[in-house]
Amino acid sequence: MSLGVSLRPRGLDLEGTAWSARAVFVLEAGEEMTRLAAHLTHFLGVNAASE
Length: 51
Fold this sequence. Notes:
By secondary structure, this protein is of the alpha+beta class. The chain has one domain. Helices cover about 35% and strands about 25% of the residues. The protein has helices at about 30-45, 45-50, and strands at about 1-5, 20-25. It has a two-stranded antiparallel ribbon. The protein starts with a strand and ends with a helix. The relative contact order is 0.19.
């Protein structure tokens, strides 16, 4: 799985001078995906919402 993330300043860039940054994360199926899912679950508070 690959996940791309782009960062840029808020608002319109009518002059074409704004900065941007992009990162792509690649995860292999299996242990890496399981670990990511556990971290996201903890971060998003899914356990607290389902209790």
